[in-house]
Amino acid sequence: MGKNLLKLMALILILHLVLAQSACRKRGIDSPDEALPSARAAKIALSLPEGSERWRETGEVVSRALKRERYSVDMRFAEDLAAQFSQIEEMLNDGCDLLAVLPINAYAMGNVLEEAKQRGVPVVSCESLIMGTDAVSCFVAFDSAAAGRLQAQRFISELSLSSARRTFNIEIFPGDLEAEAESGVNYFNGLIAALEPYLDNNKVQIFSNQTSIEQMSVSEADPEAARRRMSDLVASCGYGTGKIPLDAIFCKNDVMARGAVQALVDVGYNKDDIPFVAGHGCDSENIVLMAQGLQTISLYNDADVFTEALVKAIDGLLGDGIFEPDADVDIGEGTVPAFFCTPVIYDAGDYATLRAKK
């Protein structure tokens, strides 16, 4: 009986070890020693831009979700690039275990992130893809190409382009190529891909002939920049009621949509003759514009959807979860895994729903 009992105990121990190792592999962990009591106590640093209503809201949702997952969180908002550099350096010096950054300038982060790389701190690029550095570990964002595609599809449907017998004039605001190049290019490509059949058969045209993304680039953080460009387009193209018709304005975000709408209102457009205007963000001011009939649609990035993807990425990078990205994206120094989320379209009919979200 003694020998049989010892054999049984040995078998139980072996089974226990096998199950433990299997569980670790399912979480993306190589051995039981790497299992996550340590990672679950990890400190997550969040570096976000000041001045964005959406990212204030999203930051709070992300922070609460991470704390529920037993991470500690250091979240800071920067007014400009210098402040973001300084804050990231402070967070690294304070001993963060992972850095999630929404860059103020996606092309200017290399030096400060090199320090994170040297310290072995994984870096998650949020929403805007940080370029030109191999310090980035992962990218989490709403799909900019899908956003452009969704705006175009709604325009095609709302103005019944497939059965129309005239040419529709459009203008595009894809954002700031210096600060947001990757997402702006992806947005533009998604939009143009969806409009391509109508551009090819001349049912849609960019009447200003400003067809390169460089010609369209303005700051996406300042509505005044979009207002000035739209005012210039109105003057140079002769847009207006009873003049050259302007049928649609596509904007990568709501900040630019506000500026474009203001320029049109300044020259006499109202809810009865304003063109199809598409934005992105469902900012409070733009919700009001939609209710007033001055903006047609705005895409909404659900903070809960983004948070779920970000937490999944963080868990995977820190070893507590299966790391299953949606794609690999090129950052100029190789590729990194990416998690993409899809925005949702809202219009004036969703006013009550949007107000509840705010």
Shape, please?
elongated
How many strands appear in the DSSP assignment?
13
Largest sheet: 7 strands, mixed
Distance, first to last CA: 70 Å
Q: Roughly what percent helix?
A: 40-55%
Strand order of the largest sheet: 2-1-3-4-5-12-11
Tally of distinct domains? 3
* Poorly predicted segments: 1-40
What proportion of the residues form beta strands (DSSP E)? 15-25%
**What structural class do helix, strand and pairing data support?**
alpha/beta
CATH class of the largest domain: Alpha Beta
What is the gyration radius calculated from CA atoms?
Answer: 24 Å
In N-to-C order, the SSE pattern is: HHEHEHEHEEHEHEHHEHEHEHEEEH
Using the 3D structure, state the CATH architecture of the largest domain: 3-Layer(aba) Sandwich
In CATH, the homologous superfamily of the largest domain goes by the name Response regulator
Helix run count:
13
Overall residue-averaged pLDDT value: 87
The name of the CATH topology of the largest domain is: Rossmann fold
Question: What can you see in these coordinates?
Answer:
The protein is an alpha/beta fold. The chain contains 13 helices and 13 strands. The protein has helices at 2-26, 37-40, 53-68, 81-93, 110-118, 144-158, 181-200, 213-216, 223-237, 254-266, 284-291, 303-317, 351-357, and strands spanning 43-49, 72-78, 98-101, 123-126, 138-142, 168-173, 204-206, 248-251, 276-280, 297-300, 327-330, 335-341, 344-347. Strand 3, helix 5 and strand 4 form a beta-alpha-beta unit. It starts with a helix and ends with a helix. Mean pLDDT is 87; it is low at 1-40.
